[in-house]
Design brief:
The protein is mostly helical and 510 residues long. Helix content is 76%, strand content 0%. The longest helix is centred in the middle third of the chain and has 50 residues. This is Sodium:solute symporter.
Length: 510
């Protein structure tokens, strides 16, 4: 039987399984909490799997192998930075975040500071999650283009439709169940199939050392500046991303959030090392791949096609699709949650209107409304992915503003009692505007730079200015009102409090 037919059949079976999990998840979805955060009932196994799945996307899987091919073992640093972000979030903040019983990052800011101005964070978070979803959609479509020979738009439409269906039907429960399968497929595909087969084809580590330059075994081979960039952008971004926090909200207890997440972080680090080694071994086993012309991401598909036996290559291709779909679905439900809970009520308030997005008296209506938001934003993400040849630029801008503008206010609220709402609002405004302004200056050539929009300086200046403003304004303004602070402390302590309604953004009385 033709090997390409078997590979295609395996991927098709996987895609059908994803749709089946959508229907399975539907039976467990009764209200807002079920749809958006899986009822806050995930134990260690489910939580670890879903956390690892959502952070390990196409960049970590396909991109990580490509970096290993190009730079050797130092290609691991991208995924190691991602794993470090998961570790830090889990060990330092996940327990507190889980106890808050909220739905969005913006709700945390409103609870902590009692300032409605902090809801502007929802706009940045919506842009970030939407661009992340669009990027992941375009990424797994590239696999379909190679596998099925489709046009790019058709590959995006079909792949996007599958993610849309299972995410819309069952929400976070469907996504969680799908993530478990995706986690298993990625684990088997990377650790138990690709790694041993490619190492064997390259003659083991001795064979690799004999045929590549010693620089491929240097930990800093990719460049110190690049490694720093990975940690600044991805480690810090993971600490505050809505898509990651929404997974923390699904944990059954603070202990599950802390140690299940830490386990996922360690797994990510090992995943990064494995990907880099696979890429390095592929450089010996398949030395003639023209990465300059085709791009480094083609290495993954070349290994699956030319080194792995019939059938196993299909499973490995399914692993790549799994990685991208898990990230896309996680970003999609995060975008829908932020849009409904934060952005729409905030925008409406500017026109003097109050919108109640939480229909607690009729949970079925509530779930239906959430499905409409997921469906609508999913279609938007698919259209963005179709229209833009390079949505990575938009994602880079969103990531930079996320870190440069919001990081200080969010983490400051978690670790510094003296931080105030006015300081948080000004910190976000100054950091975001400065970061965006410098990004535009670099992109248009006003400030000459070879990196353009990918330059690191905007993040550094945005972070620095945001931190300075946060500290100075906090010290110059009155402390957070006692009633707001008391309510925050009760939640952080895990006191018996009701789950915050979806649209709730408590503010201090004036």
């Amino acid at each position: 039987m033709d090997s390409s037919f078997i590979n295609i059949a395996i991927v098709v079976v996987y895609l059908l399984a994803m749709l089946a999990f959508g229907w399975w998840g539907k039976s467990r979805t009764k209200n807002n909490s079920d749809f958006l955060v899986a009822g806050r009932r995930l134990g260690p196994m489910l939580y670890t799997g879903t956390m690892a799945a959502v952070v390990l996307g196409g960049a970590s899987t396909v991109g990580g192998v490509g970096l290993g091919y190009k730079f050797g073992v130092s290609g691991m640093w991208l995924v190691v930075a991602i794993g470090s972000g998961v570790l830090l979030l889990s060990l330092l903040f996940a327990g507190t975040i889980q106890r808050l019983k909220i739905y969005t990052v913006s709700q945390m800011l409103s609870l902590r500071y009692g300032q409605r101005a902090t809801q502007t964070s929802g706009i940045v978070m919506l842009a970030y999650t939407l661009m992340l979803c669009a990027t992941s959609t375009g990424a797994y479509a590239t696999i379909f283009v190679v596998l099925f020979g489709w046009e790019r738009w058709l590959a995006i439409a079909v792949g996007g439709a599958i993610v849309l269906v299972y995410s819309t039907i069952g929400g976070m429960w469907s996504i969680t169940l799908a993530d478990q399968v995706q986690f298993i497929i990625k684990t088997v595909g990377i650790f138990f199939l690709m790694l041993p087969f490619v190492l064997n084809a390259a003659g083991g580590f001795d064979g690799i050392r004999a045929r590549v330059d010693a620089s491929f075994f240097q930990l800093d081979g990719i460049g110190a500046q690049t490694i720093i960039t990975y940690f600044v952008v991805y480690t810090l971004g993971l600490l505050i991303g809505q898509d990651i926090w929404q997974r923390v909200f699904t944990a059954k207890t603070p202990k599950v959030a802390r140690w299940g997440g830490a386990t996922a972080g360690i797994y990510c680090v090992l995943y990064g090392v494995a990907g880099a080694v696979i890429g390095l071994a592929a450089r010996v086993a398949l030395p003639n791949i023209d990465v300059k012309a085709l791009g480094k991401d083609v290495v993954y598909a070349e290994v699956a096609t030319h080194i792995l036996p019939i059938g196993i290559g299909g499973l490995v291709m399914a692993a790549a699709v799994a990685a991208m779909m898990s990230t896309a679905s996680g970003a999609l439900i995060a975008a829908a949650t932020v849009a409904r809970a934060d952005v729409v009520p905030f925008v409406a308030s500017w026109f003097g209107k109050t919108i109640n997005t939480d229909d607690t008296e009729n949970p079925e209506h509530d779930v239906k409304a959430n499905r409409y938001w997921v469906l609508g934003l999913g279609i938007v993400a698919v259209l963005i992915s179709m229209a833009a040849q390079d949505v990575v630029v938009a994602l880079t801008i969103a990531y930079d503003i996320l870190v440069g503008g919001l990081l200080v206010a969010i983490l400051g609220g978690l670790v510094w009692k003296r931080g105030t709402g006015i300081a948080a609002a000004w910190s976000m405004a100054v950091g975001s505007v400065l970061t965006l302004g410098l990004l535009i200056a670099y992109a248009t050539g006003i400030i000459p730079s070879e990196d353009g929009v990918y330059a690191n300086d905007p993040i550094y200046w945005g972070l620095g200015a945001s931190l300075l403003v946060y500290v100075v304004v906090s010290l110059l303004t009155p402390p957070t009102e006692p009633a707001v602070r008391e309510a925050w402390d009760r939640r952080v302590a895990g006191a018996a409090v009701e789950e915050l309604p979806l649209e709730a953004h408590p503010v201090a009385s004036h």
